[in-house]
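Per-record layout

source: Neogobius melanostomus
name: Coiled-coil-helix-coiled-coil-helix domain-containing protein 7
length: 91
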Amino acid sequence: MDRNVRKLRDQDINPCLEETHASSKCMDHYNYDRNMCSAYFQNYKDCRKYWHNVMVQRRREGIKPDMPTAAERREMLAALEESLTDLSAGL
């Protein structure tokens, strides 16, 4: 298997693995009609943008590795979800 393909499938390297798979499944399901999968593509773009910003921030702060591991990302997302829940409960 090509090295780049392995990187894309590695959960510690690719933070948007689920979004990648969902986009691919949608394309397969709708016979590669991109218009039917635009929401999946947007989710993927949003995911990449979010984690890219996290990576840039960690780089600026000198935190290694630049990209959090899969376990760290799960913790970060859980904390983010909890804070969003707290915000919506306060409204």
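summary: The CA atoms of residues 60 and 66 lie 9 Å apart. Helices lie at 3-9, 17-29, 38-60, 70-90.
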